[in-house]
# Entry
Amino acid sequence: MRTFLRAVVLVLAAVALPAALGAPAVFDALALNEPRTDGASQSPAPVEHDPAKPTAVVVVGDNGAVVSDTLAPYEILATTGAFNVYTVASETHPVPLTGGLDLVPDLTFAELDEMGGAADLVVVPAMPDVGRPTTRPVTDWLEAQANGGALLLSICNGAAVVASAGLLDGHRATAHWLRLDDWEGTYPAVDWERGTRYVDDGEVVSTAGILSGIDGTLHVVDRLIGADAAADAARAIEWPHFDPDGAAPMEQAELATSDAVVAFNTAFGWDRPRIGVQLTDGVGEIELASVFDTYGQSLAVGTVAVGDGPVRSRHGLTFVPRADSGVGLDRLVVPGTTEHDAVPGMEPVQYPHHRAGFAFDAVLQDLARTTDVATAEWTAKVLEYPIDGLALEGEAWPWAETLRPLALALVGVLVALGAFALLRARKNARRRN
# Structure
């Protein structure tokens, strides 16, 4: 019995120190990707409306949304020139997108109603508070839009937002591979599907994880405007996986041993770099998303939007920075294909989009180079972005982050063994006396 208890103590000692030091790092890593904003009031860009065009809106909640789920469909729809495209929310204050980017919605729900009521297409990105009372303004509004005849397009776990409104009951749908089991238990009236990038079930089109939303959005453009418009939009954003013949099948992703990399980065990435992302006028929406989402989904790098005031993106969205300088940051990234002056005194500066290719390619390559290949591969898996033809160069694995818990466990065991030896010495001393 004494041997068993001693073994239990040694195991607990091996676990305690890594857990105690790793837990704060986990909360810090998750906070880097947690949407937040100071709520500062900003004016959106002036809204133009052409009554001859269908209206497409991307809805965001008061607690924000996933950045790529929001910005990639917006840019695709805006690129076609065939829609009135707006971002909408229940209120006018800036809403936080994951990774540290704040968006000023174009319209409130009430303002959209004043322009003519129901939209023709409503895009629903993943929201951090899905299923909570805070999403009630969104789900109530979605129900009204669906009753008004709008086509719903859910992106990634935006399907759960639509499901929480009861609008997926009896429908086929899909979502991010990491959460499908959860959604099956939470929303059993939905026929959840795996192994496809999107599902078209008539009144609702749903997509799998994050960048699968590009395929689903292009499909909706094909359905509403035509195949040529979808092909043109795919070329405009340099999306290499466009399939005009329908939903491209894909191997259903599952957690693998190599995915442990995210646990090591999250719990033991104590020297996690912080990157400033400079906001500039005219930047592409997908270019912005590629930086904030790639680094953010890795959980190995933190990002924050910097600049000297609100900016207008390529297709007219308004973003506000969270910092006006690069103080306390390790380096600066300037998204976009247009040259801009960097924040004074901030070095080094990188311009990831100054060569041809899909915007996420260069950022994933930078992630591999500055962290490691395993982290970049995990991030691409979470993004649901095929990288078979993308060259990733860098260290193979985050060895420092991996060895830290082992070293801490060893220290814990040595401390426990030292305590055992001290107790034994005291016991022997008492016997001699």
The radius of gyration is 24 Å. Residues 32-36 have pLDDT under 50 and may be disordered. The longest helix spans residues 399-432.
